[in-house]
Amino acid sequence: MLQRTPAGTTGTTGTFRRRPRRPRAHVAVFVVPFFVAFALFYLAPIGYAVYQSFFRLTSSGLGLTEPVLEFAGLGNYAAALTSEAFVASIGRVLVFSLVEVPVMVVAALALALLLDSARARFRAFFRVSFFLPYGVPGVIASLLWGFLYVPQTSPLIDVLAAAGLPHDFLSPQTILLSIANIATWQFAGYNMLVLIAGLQAIPQELYEAARVDGASELRIAWHVKVPLVRAPLILITVFTLIGTLQLFVEPLILKPLTTAINSDYTPNLAAYNQAFGQANIHLASAEATLIAVMAFVISFGFLRVVNRKGNRAW
Fold first, then answer.
1. Per-position DSSP letters for 197-240, written without gaps between them
2. pTM
């Protein structure tokens, strides 16, 4: 008579025991809530914004009747792309990205290399100190630096003036650099930690072999460490690109302090003004969608370029 063995392999009777079923129900308990939250709080708002961008409110010439919602097609997108203020805001954040992205990446890399150096002391203290600005909310950080930019409250301007270097941080010529300073101060520490995690994954034997060959710490940093943290460098570059294209908090907080920032200074600020200042949520949705598409295209294009160069290098 055939019997099944408890061992899970072929028994003496020549039969196989059934393998236990995988606990798929237990996996679903942990996975399904994530997908539900992802769909409700991420995909649904995006879809609703795109849906709203294809409509507009129209009313009679006298404005005595209730506005009627009608299909506008690509009319809102055409209105956004033909708006001189909105197009100028796109050009402004692109210029800001050209300045901020290299500064952010170089600053984070320099801090990470300094803390990873063999001669570095008090690493834990400086690591926490560099990371602390990331814990400050963007609104608070902008307010703090705003007080340092206003001549009436800034000790920094007084010091520069005493040294014969008068400076206006809120002028139209310097306001982008002032905003870049806030962003760098706040996020360089976070990007530094990403790079430090990559540096700590490098085998120590490579450093020892380089020192045996007579390489200095500077040559080790440039020829060993930097090439091996290529992936984290690409990651923080993409994050910084997306962040600069979505610039919003800093100009919004600094706007009451200077005339150099208007309601359409950045694309996000323009969409915010259309939604809550002009009550035109449909045009605001179109502008927000254009911002998202622009961030996706630029980020994807950057990844394609660096991956192609990386494959050629290999």
1. HHHHTS-HHHHHHHHHTT--HHHHIIIIIHHHTHHHHHHHHHHH
2. 0.83
